[in-house]
Design goal:
By secondary structure, this protein is α/β, with parallel strands linked by helices. It has 9 helices and 9 strands. It has helices at residues 22-33, 41-48, 103-113, 132-147, 165-176, 206-215, 223-233, 267-279, 302-316; strands spanning 6-10, 60-66, 69-75, 83-89, 116-120, 153-163, 183-187, 255-263, 284-293. A 9-stranded mixed sheet has the order 1-9-8-7-6-4-5-3-2, with helices on both faces. α8 (267-279) links the parallel β8 (255-263) and β9 (284-293). Residues 198-204 have low confidence and may be disordered.
Length: 319
């Protein structure tokens, strides 16, 4: 794809339907029934820690530290050279999840792409509000770049990646150090704190309000959860290192892939960011999956498997 182009397409088969597939609806309802509402940090963390599937075998998986930040390094083929290096930030509303909850996703990305994946265990809110998480994210990026040759990777092929709040951290880190990364893989990221406020406020944008109104309830990840996550996280909603969609200038950012769920309140934030990236001259592609909800990556759904496969192919071609 040429620089400045935005590829927006429905992938995974079929057209955008605006409703969940039968399999996704059954899974969504089952997950929502056992997931706490916003407000109880301990309960949310406990719920997030359960029910995760095992990922594929990876030749080398080891825990360590990146300048004080805990990390887990996945190497699918030790002894390689010149490979991509993925710095991965897990989702969980900046409040929950960690290395264990996203182990299968990182294993899948490493195994399918051939890249070394460094998963960052950044500090969580509300104990450590903004800017703790993005500062940890930048610390891990700097460490990974310095360690790239020792890891058998090309320091010119470093990609930032993350799902949900981790996608926000990847986008923020790319804004802070665009010259250090070759790409950013953003999976259904929250990109505008103001969009989580009451619909119709002066700071909410019309371009992101439709998906919030359509999918803010009944699709597992709710508008109430998102607003509460933002409150715990803190920071100024207008600051681009909180809300990347509000950055005044997106030119100079690296090659980007946005992976979005059609039935997700965050869908339109992702689409708006893609359009702004394209207008700024950034090579940006969008993979929009119909019939699925926020969090589908890594779930036992055909779209989840397809999204991981396509993201891995994109990673192999980056750098």
């Amino acid at each position: 794809m040429s620089g400045g182009a935005v590829g927006e397409g429905v992938v995974g088969g079929g057209a955008v339907s605006g409703s969940l597939s039968p399999a996704a609806r059954a899974l969504c309802d089952a997950m929502a029934a056992s997931f706490p509402g916003p407000g109880d940090v301990a309960a949310l963390r406990a719920a997030a820690a359960h029910g995760r599937s095992a990922g594929p075998e990876v030749a080398s998986v080891r825990d360590g530290e990146a300048s004080g930040v805990p990390v887990r390094v996945y190497d699918p083929a030790p002894g390689g050279a010149g490979r991509p290096l993925v710095v991965f930030f897990h989702g969980g509303g900046w409040v929950m999840c960690g290395l264990g909850t996203h182990d299968a996703t990182c294993r899948s990305l490493a195994a399918a792409s051939g890249a070394v994946v460094v998963s960052a265990d950044y500090r969580l809110a509300p104990e450590h509000p903004w800017p703790a998480a993005p500062d940890d994210a930048l610390t891990v990026l700097l460490w990974a770049r310095a360690q790239a040759p020792a890891l058998g990777c090309d320091p010119g092929r470093v990609v930032l990646a993350g799902d949900s709040s981790g996608g926000n951290l990847a986008a923020v880190t790319a804004l802070r150090a665009p010259e250090l990364v070759a790409g950013q893989l953003l999976v259904y990221p929250p990109l505008d704190a103001a969009a989580a406020t009451a619909t119709g406020t002066a700071t909410a944008t019309a371009s992101t309000a439709a998906s919030t109104a359509a999918y803010g309830e009944g699709h597992f990840h709710t508008a109430a959860h998102m607003a509460w996550y933002w409150e715990q996280y803190g920071g100024d909603p207008a600051h681009p290192h909180v809300s990347p969609l509000r950055a005044p200038d997106l030119s100079g950012l690296p090659r980007t892939l946005l992976v979005l769920a059609d039935c997700d309140l965050l869908r339109d934030e992702g689409l708006a960011y893609a359009r702004r990236l394209g207008a700024a001259g950034v090579d940006c592609a969008v993979h929009l999956y119909p019939g699925v909800f926020h969090g589908f990556l890594g779930l036992p759904l055909p779209a989840g498997r397809a999204a991981l496969t396509a993201a891995a192919a994109w990673l192999r071609a980056t750098g």
